[in-house]
Amino acid sequence: MSTAIDSPYGIGIYTVPEAALLSGVRAQRLRRWLAGYEYESPTGDRRKSAALWARELPPLDDGQLMLSFRDLVEAKWIHFFRDQHVSWQEIRDVAARAAEELNDTHPFSTGRFAAIVKGKKAQPKALIAQQLPGRMREVLSDQYNLDRVMTPFVRQLEFRNDRLVRWFPLHGSRRVLLDPQVRFGAPIVKSGVPTEILWRNHHFGRATYRALARWWDIPEAEVKDAVRWESNLRAA
């Protein structure tokens, strides 16, 4: 199931292991979400569970699945919902309705979508943001809500005219970002240097933050955040 975009230029490209590392979803589970899977029902019948959404990139010639930037964010959202114990049926129902209303195969990664929670332990409810400031409508119930708090993940995303353009994944910082227009969406600092290069030079090359900042002609704060981001990834 694919939207059949032939080129990854401008939309990002990630292997399943790369996307698993960035999204926090185990690679095996991510493959099941992308391609669907067969299972045995309680009655012994073989059944097929469809892919959760239409991915943007076709498989490689060897069958390897690839994700775009929006596919990655879609997976991140679904992972969040499952962590909050939202049922698969509700996720599928919300995705189908939101995709139809927004005319978009990736409704969770549009600027009109958000997630909210009623309290610290409550399950999130999928919402589509309305044009009125501070007002949202629940996708499935059509009820309007004013007293909800959006998940912090929303604040990490940057949109232009409802189109997702960047993700700032490091909590409390906007120095590390993923931009599908730059280096095919690989994590970089604001100055454009890949975070992995800075981390490797610091971790394996024993280069100091100050030295790396001087070599790459970038702020030292970007080097520190790059190392923190990459270290967090590997510790997850």
Structure description:
The chain contains eight helices and 13 strands. The protein is an alpha+beta fold. The strands form five sheets. Strands 8-7-6-5-9 form a five-stranded antiparallel sheet. Helix 7 (209-216) packs across helix 8. The longest helix has 16 residues, at 220-235. It is globular. Residues 1-6 have low confidence and may be disordered.
Q: Summarize the helix and strand pattern as letters.
A: EHHEEEHHEEEEEHEEEEHHH
The beta-strand count equals: 13
- The share of residues in helices is 25-40%
- Residue share in β-strands: 15-25%
Task: Estimate the global geometry from the Cα principal axes.
Answer: globular
Structural class: alpha+beta
Q: DSSP helix count?
A: 8
Q: What value does the average pLDDT take?
A: 86
Main β sheet profile: 5 strands, antiparallel
Distance between the termini: 30 Å
Contiguous low-pLDDT stretches (5 residues minimum) are: 1-6
From the alpha carbons, calculate the radius of gyration and give it in angstroms: 19 Å
Strand order of the largest sheet: 8-7-6-5-9
Notable traits:
single chain, 236 residues, alpha+beta, 5-stranded antiparallel β-sheet, two-stranded antiparallel ribbon, globular, disordered N terminus
Furnish the topology, listing elements before pairings.
Elements: E1 14-15, H1 16-23, H2 27-35, E2 37-40, E3 46-49, E4 66-67, H3 69-83, H4 88-102, E5 113-117, E6 125-129, E7 136-138, E8 144-145, E9 149-150, H5 152-155, E10 157-160, E11 163-167, E12 176-177, E13 188-189, H6 195-203, H7 209-216, H8 220-235
Antiparallel strand pairs: 1-4, 2-3, 5-6, 5-9, 6-7, 7-8, 10-11, 12-13
Helix pairs in contact: 6-8, 7-8
